[in-house]
Specification:
The protein has 246 residues and is an alpha/beta fold. The protein folds into 2 domains: 118 residues, Zincin-like (2-Layer Sandwich); 111 residues, Metalloproteases ("zincins"), catalytic domain (Zincin-like, 2-Layer Sandwich), CATH 3.30.2010. It has 9 helices and 8 strands. The strands form 3 sheets. Strands 1-3-2 form a 3-stranded mixed beta sheet, with helices on one face. The protein has a 3-stranded mixed beta sheet with strand order 4-6-5, with helices on one face. Strands 7-8 form a two-stranded antiparallel sheet. It is elongated, with a radius of gyration of 23 Å. The protein starts with a helix and ends with a helix.
Length: 246
């Protein structure tokens, strides 16, 4: 009996249009609110992001075209996430997990990376900065910790001196970008090297995906990071530098 009910629900979901899914979810979340006019468009974004807005009684949803052929339960999960976000409500964790499991599928992740590379672009400054040369720092670390065997990705300084993101590795564009906040004499070289080493480890230990979970810093990653010569000093220098530049 339960199996029959489940099949009936799945069949109903299959024949719903995307707009009908958003209408049903909206009524579930805001049953006492007048139903707005709902329009859903699939857009060619350079990532898996989607957007929602409510203006003058019209609900406009722009969904990445990466999800255009996603099954109805995934469209429903995204509808819950977006409408909950619109009204500042917490979505059901099970719904969020369903959506994340889909995005974490190997085939979907591969498609996302391809789209990012084809449609997107990465803005950064050349690696030869005012105070530090990122190419030289990379190669010194490569020789010291990776036997010189790590293929060098693109390197560059961020356009803005970010304090929140000191560095990041973008696998879609194969580039390491270090915050330009560190390209100054006030930043000790050990600090710049430490941030670079951290990002290099992302090439050595890629993000792991298990179901709905996404682990960026694995146990192996954290162990390898502690092998950095002057690890404790680098963390102290980082704290001191950020306090001085606050």
């Amino acid at each position: 009996m339960l199996q029959l009910v489940k099949m009936q629900i799945e069949t109903a979901l299959f024949f719903e249009s995307v707009e009908q899914i958003y209408t049903r979810v909206f009524r579930t979340i805001k049953p006492r609110t007048a139903l707005p006019e709902i329009a859903v468009r699939f857009r060619k974004y350079a990532n898996a992001n989607s957007r929602i807005r409510l203006e003058e009684g019209r609900l406009r949803v722009d969904v990445t075209d990466l999800l255009e052929n996603a099954p109805a339960p995934i469209q429903e999960a995204l509808a819950f996430i977006l409408i909950c976000k619109l009204f500042r409500k917490e979505p059901d964790p099970a719904v969020v997990a369903r959506y994340r499991r889909y995005l974490n599928r190997a085939d979907i992740r591969k498609t996302i990376h391809l789209v990012k590379r084809e449609r997107g672009w990465k803005a950064y400054s050349p690696p030869h900065g005012k105070s530090y040369d990122l190419v030289q720092i990379f190669e010194d670390l490569n020789f010291l910790y990776f036997h010189g065997l790590m293929a060098r990705p693109e390197l560059g300084w961020s356009l803005r001196p970010s304090r929140r993101t000191l560095g990041h590795y973008d696998p879609s564009h194969n580039v390491i970008v270090i915050t330009s906040l560190l390209d100054c004499q006030a930043a000790p070289k050990v600090l710049v090297s430490y941030i670079m080493f951290h990002e290099m480890l992302h090439l050595r230990y890629p993000t792991e995906h298990k179901g709905a979970r996404r682990c960026v810093h694995t146990k192996e990653f954290k162990q390898a990071e502690r092998a950095f010569e002057g690890y404790e000093k680098a963390n102290l220098e980082l704290k001191r530098f950020l306090e001085q530049t606050a």
